[in-house]
Structures are given as structure tokens and as C-alpha cells.
Amino acid sequence: MRITRLVSQDVRFPTSKTLAGSDALHPSPDYSAAYVTLETDDPQGLKGNALSFTAGRGTEVVIAGIHAFAPFVVGRTLEDIVHDFRGFWRSLVGDGQLRWIGPEKGVIHLAASAVINAVWDLYAKSEGKPLWKLLVDMSPEQLVSSIEFRYLSDALTPDEALEMLKTNYSTRRLRETEMKAIGYPAYTTSVGWLGYADSKLEQLCQEAIAQGWNYAKIKVGGNLDDDIRRSRLVRKQLGPDRKLMMDANQAWDVGTAISWMKKLAQFDPWWIEEPTSPDDVWGHGVIARALDPIGVATGEQCQNRVIFKQLFQLNAIRFCQIDACRLASVNEVIPVMLMAAKFGVPVCPHAGGVGLCEYVQHYSLFDYIAVSASLENRVVEYIDHLHEHFVHPVKIRDGHYMPPTAPGFSITMRPESVAEFEFPNGPAWKR
Amino acid sequence: MRITRLVSQDVRFPTSKTLAGSDALHPSPDYSAAYVTLETDDPQGLKGNALSFTAGRGTEVVIAGIHAFAPFVVGRTLEDIVHDFRGFWRSLVGDGQLRWIGPEKGVIHLAASAVINAVWDLYAKSEGKPLWKLLVDMSPEQLVSSIEFRYLSDALTPDEALEMLKTNYSTRRLRETEMKAIGYPAYTTSVGWLGYADSKLEQLCQEAIAQGWNYAKIKVGGNLDDDIRRSRLVRKQLGPDRKLMMDANQAWDVGTAISWMKKLAQFDPWWIEEPTSPDDVWGHGVIARALDPIGVATGEQCQNRVIFKQLFQLNAIRFCQIDACRLASVNEVIPVMLMAAKFGVPVCPHAGGVGLCEYVQHYSLFDYIAVSASLENRVVEYIDHLHEHFVHPVKIRDGHYMPPTAPGFSITMRPESVAEFEFPNGPAWKR
């Protein structure tokens, strides 16, 4: 099967109208996607899809990055790519001219992620399996040969990775069966956007509890008095046993993160997410030591595996929040999950946005079945919007993600949605 | 004076034909520029210029990023911007939608850099001063109010910065006079591109010594035997007293960097530049401790001030190689120079590329006159190509950069050059 064409589309949802998604540094995002379709010469018309989640303005820049990678995939056969997936990955991420505008970060890495994820979607569809199942069924040797170890060998070698994957290989069917029966635990962020009024916060909390959620996350970092009032309100609704997470979205300097969170410690937060710049590995470590036993979490804007490697080496996070678009696809997410397991850090993926829930469910299923073999302190983020735009949206039951069954990466969008919300010419934007 | 229009141009030089610029990870770059012109309503037709240096493919992606920032400058007056330069900087770099595709790194930061540098160029031209002189003449209070301290307060506070600038303020005229007389020391990288044959390397070394250069840098990291042979050849030409620098351009993992450089230590390198991923702050520290007394240098691909902050905090580099395009303009370079001075690390800017020499001479002059007040272990990179495309190219005398005298940032390109090399429609690319 040969890839014949790469099509990219700029799809934006006007979420800023409702303040869903509002936080300390992103007051009014329009949740958006740089959406990729790889067309093929397959007689059944099989196509690979993927997207990079964005926040409105700038989606067109990611689209430009995606176009720069088109010559790296168009004309290639799926078989060739899959035969040397690591080599394929490096041909994009390590291109001697394009890497200058990264390297391995920001726009060009988001673009590489979308293009490579579209190949993984095509691969899974061609095998007739959901992506998590494709990965679970790959041998440890196949997996290790696909993933990227460059710059990681002081934390994880290919031999160690192989050993870890082999350890869990014989028992994987047990965990697969368990997942199909009860699903992977989730938590909800839908209650606590920064732009929501107290009454709305209270009502959403009550609804979430009624729906069976045992975790809730609120946004903090705008104003300390507001944060104290909102935290008190949410903790009262949750009771003492349900877990409350807080998310500052990079609002603070290191010292402020520590002093601010000491004021919120009385509400027993399970974690503080993104207390400062995602680039500040050392700062996260300082904050983690000062705020213990509150855990530090980050990852949604951590640019690549090298940042995660250091967060693990410096014991700077207690929760690893991989992002399905920020890291450049399966080939880079798996080594991060392997490092997390080696260093004993649970992976709790970042989700929400557009399509992130659809993506990360596959990663957490694979993580549990093949890598960590543990559910301890592990939950996947869930946000209850924009799922209606996907052909195979996530299924949540009793606060758990139920394993997807359709072939692929669950990221194919409904054509009507793409047409309606394409920017700037879709009807939703013309109105 | 009001900014009326932003024009951007994709200008590429076919340097890959000669292998000038070739290194371990960038085997055949086409040195390029995303070039910005800010047009104004000034009766004399004053324009601001800037560029972000790129390596060929991908320049069009940076151009897309620059366009995303056009609405942030077009329609603004220079007076308004300069009155609150930090606020202006944050309006671009911290935009609640655009920051998602960075934040503060890669394409979007390169784009912000070009747009903001064009404003600084306009500002300096409007004051009739070269940029370094504009900065030297600003009061410590003005400077501190212009620069960005977010995420830095655990390493440098505004009060400390003010104190440092005040300390050198009264003696600055002495150093200004000295610079005008003898210039700022430089070193040359032109001798040792990885793609050059031994005979060419030898000949270029002899020419460089004849021209008065006391430093030379060669590329390493491709093949160890080649590196040993080339290092021996260059050291023989340089003699024992001239300084030899080595540059691996991120070729190695941490362990490889250490073992490889132990084999090259016999040639007495002054520094090893970019031994590994520019994102690996901790790894640079491990390498630095293992290779002492060889110094570790990095910076040309360090994405922002937060990475530099950690490199200083962890004592991970002995030479700080700021890049004029990678960091988002004067407002972010100055805090890095202040941190370097506080932590006792000399700033030896990265240059070469297209226009980088033109840019960084201003920074090193300001660094010496207003910040560090020292020339110890400080040299600015110099590469002898592509200067002919600038209206006011750098002037080198006896291995020193002579202070520019023309108003602005020295980065305005000759219109004939832009027309000739514009990609893909300029005559140079049509042929």
C-alpha cells in the first residue's frame, strides 16, 4: 500500500465563547486541530488520519510544518515504513535542514507528530486492530526496534527496554481481559475551568460525583483568594476521600509556586500540575521537594523525551503527563513510558483538547498491559467536550475509559465536522 | 511613527553546494533567513529589519509564524511599544492561543525574535544609533523595565539586575572608548567544516593564522578516527598556544560524549561545543564534570532563558553561547547575559549562519561595556561568508570585531541580494 497524497486541514472550534478550556495562561482558547489525512492507493480506500491539537491562532503555522514533511511520506509504501519505523521517524525528526527550526520541539515536532501518528493510524487500520491492540501484539523486539533511544542511554538502554517488555509479555492477556471488562480509570477536568463562576463550579461538581467520578481537577494560579475560595468549595463537594487535583498551567515562578501552594495545602491536593515553565526541570525538582507530600505533575507542554528523561533523573515529578501530540508519536511516547516505569513514576496522560482523549486511551491501555502492569496512582484525564466530532469517540463507563474496538487510533474526524469548522472558510466561521 | 505593514521574505543561499556549514547533524544546510521588514509612516521612509537564521527547508514555516505576529505590530506606534517594551514582548510571546505551539521555543520563538528584533532595529535607527550604543546609553532602570524576568526569579531578580547594571554604569565610557579603538576579540570557525578534505583544512588553517587568528574551531562527532586525524592536523598548524575549539553539534549521547572527548583530550581543546541534545541540561552537567578541564559550551539551539538559567544553576557550561535569533530578541538576551555575569560564565555568542555575526557584535559590545566589564575567556564567533548581502557588514580587524557605527542592528539586507536569492522564485533558484 502506497501513500499517494497528504491532505491537511485547519479545524477550529469556537470554545472561547463559553470559556471551556480557560486557565491562567490561556484565558480564551479556541480548541483546534491541524488535521492530517494520508491517502493511499489501497483498493478499499484506506486512509491514515491524525491531528495535532492547538489553541486557535497558530494552527496555520503547524499546517505549514506538516506540509514541510509531506515529501517524507508521499510515495512511500506502508510496508517500507513499518519495516524500519525508527529510520522513518529519524528521517523526519532528524532532517538536516528542518531540525534547525526545532530541534524536536514546538511547531516542527507537533507537525512531525501528526504526520507520523497518521502512519500509525494507517498501520493499525491495515491490520484491522485498534492501535493499543496492535502495540500489545507486537513482540518486544519489534517494539524496541521501532522506538527512539537517541539521547536516552544514560537513563534507558535498548537492552533494558527489551528486558522490561519481556517481563510482562507472558501475562499480558490477563490484563487485556481485565481492561476489556472494567476499562482504565479516568478523572475529570470539566468542573473547574478558571472562567467558570462559583455556582457553576458547584453544580458541575455535584453532577460529576453523581456520574461516579472520584477525582476532580480545578485550575488555579490566577488569584490566590479566588483559589482558596474555589478549592474550599470543591473540597466540600468532594468530601475527604475523593481526590482533588490542581493545575496552574505554568503561572508561577519557582518561589511563587511553593508559597502559593502552601496556602492551598489545607485542601489536600493530590497533585499540583504545571506549577512553572515546562522547560524548568530543575525548578520542578525544587518545587517537588518543598511541597512534598503534594505531588508535582507535568508533561502536556514538555517538548520531547529528553525533558522527561531529566524530570525522572532529578526526581522532579510524581506524575508523568505524556501528551499524544507534543511527543512525536508512538515512537517517542513508548520510550517515555518505559523510562517512567523504570523510575517508578506513574503515567497519567494529559487529555481533553480536541481528540486527546481519543488518542491517549490507547497509550494507557498499552502502558498497563505491556509496560507498567500497574494501575496504582494512574488515571487518564477526561474532558466531556468535542467528542461528537469523531467517528469513534471515547466510551466512558463508571469513570473508566472502555477499550476502543474499531481499527486505528480513534482519531478520524467526521467529515461533516471538518467541513463545518474548517478555518476560516467553514460555515461555523463564516457566520 | 506608526508601523504600517509587515513584509516577510524567504531568502535562501545554496551553501549546500560547497559544504560550508556542514556538521555531524546538518550535513548539507542551505543557510537561509526568514527576513522581516516593518514599514512605517515615517516621512523619511524609515524601516525596521530583522531576520531569523534557518537552514533551508522550514524557512517557510518560520515565515508562517512571523505572519501570525503581524497583527501584534501593525498599527502600533514605535513610541507606544518602546514605552512598555516588556509588555509588548509579552503580548507576542505570551499570547494565550499562540503560546500553545511553543511555548517560547522552536518556530514560534524564532518568529517572535525576528518581529521584535525588527522593532529594536527601527528603534535604534530612529535614535540614529547602532543598537549596542542605544543599549549602552539606556539607564539601568530603562533596561530593567524592558527585559523579561518571568521564570527567572530563583536565579535573578529585577533588583539584582538593576544593581549589576548600576555597578558598571559610571565606568562605561572607558570601555566604550577601548572598544572603538581595538574592537572585540573574535574566533574563526571557517577552517573546520566536517565536509572539508584534510588538504583544505590545512590550507585554511595556515591562511587563518596568517590573518592573525588565535583561535580555531573544528567540527567533530562524525567518525572518531577522522576526528583524531583532523584534530592532530589542526593542532600542529596552530602550535601549542593558540586555542582549539571542537563542536559536535549534538551528535552524542551523554556517555559517548565523555568517552569520545577523552580520546580527543590529547589535542588540548579549549571547549567542546554542543556535546549532546541542547535540551539536556543535566546531561551537560554530567559531561562538564567528567571532562574538566575541557570546558563545555552550548547555546545556539538553547530555546530560551529558562534553559540557560538551569545551565547556570547546575554549573553545566563554562561558555554561554547565546544566539541572536533563537532567544526572543534583546528583551530575552539581556537577562541571559545578566545571569551569565552573576554566575561567572563568559558569554561567547554563536555566530556565522546568515547575519548572526552582524547581530551578535552588538550584544558582546553591550555585554562588555554594561554587564560583564570583562574580556576574560570571551570571544565572538566569526565566519567569513555571506556578509556581502548586508548593507552594513561586520568589520574585522586583527581578529577583532570593530564596533558598528551605522544606526540600527546591522541586519538590513541589500535589496539586490534579497531579490536574487528569494525562494523559490529568485533568479538564483530559478536557474
Helix fraction of chain A by DSSP (H/I, runs of at least 4): 40-55%
Task: Give the rounded overall mean pLDDT of chain A.
Answer: 96
Q: Which superfamily, in CATH terms, is the homologous superfamily of the largest domain in chain A?
A: Enolase-like C-terminal domain
What is the SS-derived class of chain A? Answer: alpha/beta
Percentage of residues in strands of chain A: 15-25%
What does this structure look like?
Two copies of one chain form a homodimer. The first copy, chain A, is α/β, with parallel strands linked by helices and about 425 residues long. Chain A has two domains: about 5-150, Enolase-like, N-terminal domain (Enolase-like, domain 1), CATH 3.30.390.10; about 170-415, TIM Barrel (Alpha-Beta Barrel). Chain A has 17 helices and twelve strands. In chain A, the strands form two sheets. In chain A, strands 4, 5, 6, 7, 8, 9, 10, 11 and 12 form a nine-stranded mixed beta sheet that branches. A three-stranded antiparallel beta sheet of chain A has the order 1-2-3, sandwiched between helices. In chain A, helix 11 links the parallel strand 6 (about 245) and strand 7 (about 270-275). The mean pLDDT of chain A is about 95. Chains A and B meet through helix 1, helix 4, helix 11, helix 12 and helix 13 of A and helix 1, helix 4, helix 11, helix 12 and helix 13 of B.
